[in-house]
């Protein structure tokens, strides 16, 4: 039995990168910093922050959802380039900027670097969906990062209610798989996945083709229901999602999800949760050689 791999689409989370000379921002500095920029841009920033911004004492950067027509993005970028508040700018999957922190207090101690500047990333897309996708619990709700919750949710989507054909490619992929995808741009999407044939007609490439089977699910309660969970509260944090998995799924399915999550390279880089490292489910999967 092979562990299910996560969608490569999830990697968009870390595609932004870091601007030079930026550091952490204290929670008390966030509002004045965004206020100053809001007045110049004429758009709502404070109500469209994503992730843990405003929920934790320090934030490494500020992510803001930007609802804008794709055709207007070049004009928006040109405007940013002319603003003295923007000290540096770069583009990837998001618009990365370096801005000065208002009411900066260098005496505030933290183990994170503090420079007086913070990175602000504008993330084009629907603010409602981006807030769901990039949701991060507060410090009192979870000891883990929002990325822990999101990768575990992506793992659930990859495993739950998955229907693989018995016929496989030479490298062990099913010739057809009906499954969920946790997409940063679309939502929770039900797809039919098939391997892409080689142009020669002999065998298959490493790529897969995903054919959408129904409209994406974006409402948090509807996402929970589609994944066999109770409600959106289950999606709040790593802890709440893990508890919901163990409550609602069979032991084999829960074990498969948790072991896939623990094996994820990004999770191993940032730290596998302590309770999962010592859990019986992971030991069980290791004994089976999965």
Q: Can you offer a commentary on this structure?
A:
- The protein is an alpha+beta fold and 290 residues long.
- The protein has 3 domains: 11-133, 2-Layer Sandwich (Beta Polymerase, domain 2); 141-160 and 227-290, no CATH class; 163-214, no CATH class.
- The chain contains 10 helices and 10 strands.
- The chain has helices spanning 27-41, 73-82, 127-133, 146-159, 220-226, 238-248, 251-263, 265-270, 274-277, 280-288, and strands at residues 25-26, 58-59, 62-66, 86-91, 95-100, 117-124, 163-164, 177-183, 187-197, 204-212.
- A hairpin with a 3-residue loop joins strand 4 (86-91) and strand 5.
- The model is unreliable at 1-15 (pLDDT under 50).
- Average per-residue pLDDT, rounded, comes to 88
Any idea how many domains? 3
- CATH architecture of the largest domain, by name, is 2-Layer Sandwich
Task: Tell me the CATH topology of the largest domain.
Answer: Beta Polymerase, domain 2
Please tally the β strands and state the result: 10
Could you state the order of secondary-structure elements as H and E?
EHEEHEEEHHEEEEHHHHHH
Which regions are unreliable across 5 or more consecutive residues at pLDDT < 50?
Answer: 1-15
**CATH superfamily heading of the largest domain:** Beta Polymerase, domain 2
So what's the overall shape? globular
Counting DSSP H or I runs of 4 or more residues, the number of helices is: 10
Helix fraction bin: 25-40%
- The structural class is alpha+beta
Q: What fraction strand?
A: 15-25%
Q: Order of strands across the biggest sheet?
A: 3-6-5-4
Rg (CA only): 21 Å
Largest sheet: 4 strands, mixed
CATH class of the largest domain: Alpha Beta
Give the termini separation: 7 Å
